[in-house]
Specification:
Structural class: mainly alpha
Strand content: under 5%
Number of helices: 16
Number of domains: 1
Order of helices and strands: HEEHHHHHHHHHHHHHHH
Strand order of the largest sheet: 1-2
Largest sheet: 2 strands, antiparallel
Number of strands: 2
């Protein structure tokens, strides 16, 4: 009887804790949605935000930038001879198709995005508690709008669904839960959402080496099946696209719709950055500088923050490097401020730094140290505000894509 009562009490505590995490995620998304609907969307409407390459087709906060193409695939099916159709991975479109068609198409996509954002912030919260040494508070999620790209959590956005799967995969690996099936499924669903799940390969490789060094067979199995899910899912989708088009290599040809072909060389991005500066083209300068500023600032935050284990810090650093390196390899700086959201460490790193600064300022430390921390906090705040402006103005003006 005593054991049964204890189990019930524990179950109640777990539900209460998990409910609190979801509550703060919901409140955070609600605040971000209010900011988007009341402030940001009217600005976008005045600036005639439209489908990329289609200035006559206006869009709003429910389907900006790439989201409209996912919705078109959901409504019309894939056009296997149109690169802009087969460029996009299928899961988000499948989910839109699955929802009742009585709900308008744009609202179906937006509903999936909002639910994904809530789940993504909830898992980000769990991930932060797992890796950081500092005392973490769920209320920090309320400040997610300050994170570069954080306002994306309240618009129609596929990246948040990908973030949910990516963070869940890393969590399952770290906790070694569901040694085979769970991390395999979440990583598979992630790569079927967006190719951004490839960013996980770098941190998973770090953990794989660590598992071999520590002779941790459970961790090794979790990582192996997570990487298998990514690899198998990606290969199957590439082959399926080639099969549907009847032409081998169609998947890669579609992705060459980007500004520069994939075969232009790994240093092409650097050359294009120098050219952008020399040409005094403000749009190009902002686009290219966003790649370096977001990645470098993320790396700086991770270097400063205290982690429970050095291996978690190293894996986080490599995940950010993967974003930077892939931008170089594909010669394309597009959407880095948004793509950074798909890396599990991005949102937690900024919120953890805010928490660390607040706790340091309220503790008994010397005046000089408080002054230094104030300077650090001011620098972080200015950086975040500049990227909020960059995102709000840059989305309709095509500064970052």
């Amino acid at each position: 009887m005593y054991i049964t009562q204890s189990i019930l009490q524990l179950n109640g505590k777990v539900k209460t804790i998990f409910s609190a995490k979801i509550l703060w995620a919901v409140l955070s998304i609600l605040l971000n949605a209010i900011i988007i609907i009341i402030i940001v969307n009217p600005i976008w409407q005045k600036l005639d935000m439209h489908v990329p390459g289609e200035p006559q087709n206006l869009v709003d906060f429910r389907n900006p930038v790439d989201t409209i193409f996912y919705l078109r695939n959901a409504e019309n099916g894939y056009n296997w001879h149109e690169p802009q159709s087969i460029w996009f991975h299928p899961l988000f479109s499948w989910l839109v198709q699955f929802l009742p068609h009585e709900i308008p198409l744009k609202w179906r996509g937006y509903l999936i995005s909002i639910v994904s954002a809530i789940l993504a912030l909830t898992t980000a919260n769990l991930y932060a508690k797992e890796i950081f040494e500092i005392r973490w508070n769920e209320r920090l999620l309320f400040l997610s709008f300050l994170v570069p790209g954080g306002l994306n959590t309240a618009i129609g956005n596929v990246e948040l669904l990908d973030l949910f799967f990516n963070t869940t995969t890393i969590l399952l690996v770290l906790k070694k839960k569901g040694y085979y099936l769970a991390p395999f499924i979440t990583s598979l669903l992630g790569i079927l959402t967006k190719p951004n799940t490839l960013y996980l390969i770098a941190p998973l490789t770090i953990y794989l080496v660590y598992s071999i060094n520590q002779k941790d067979s459970d961790l090794f199995r979790s990582i192996f099946f997570a990487m298998l899910g990514i690899t198998l899912g990606w290969i199957c989708w590439i082959l399926y696209v080639d099969y549907q088009t009847g032409l081998m290599g169609s998947y890669w040809q579609a992705r060459q719709v980007a500004t520069v072909p994939l075969f232009a060389g790994p240093f092409s991005l650097m050359y294009r950055t120098i050219y952008a500066i020399q040409s005094n083209d403000i749009n190009l300068i902002l686009k290219f500088s966003s790649v370096f500023s977001v990645c470098i600032f993320d790396l700086w935050l991770v270097a400063l923050l205290p982690f429970k284990r050095d291996i978690d810090k190293l894996a986080s650093i490599f995940s950010i490097f993967s974003l930077l390196i892939i931008s170089f390899l594909i010669n394309n700086p597009n959407k880095v401020i948004v793509y950074a959201l798909t890396i599990p460490i991005h949102i937690p790193a900024y919120l953890a730094m805010i928490s660390l600064i607040i706790r340091q300022l309220t503790s008994q430390i010397s005046f000089k140290r408080k002054l230094a921390i104030c300077g650090l906090g001011f620098l972080c705040f200015i950086f975040c505000v500049l990227h909020i402006i960059f995102f709000v103005a840059g989305t309709p003006l095509e500064w970052y894509f």
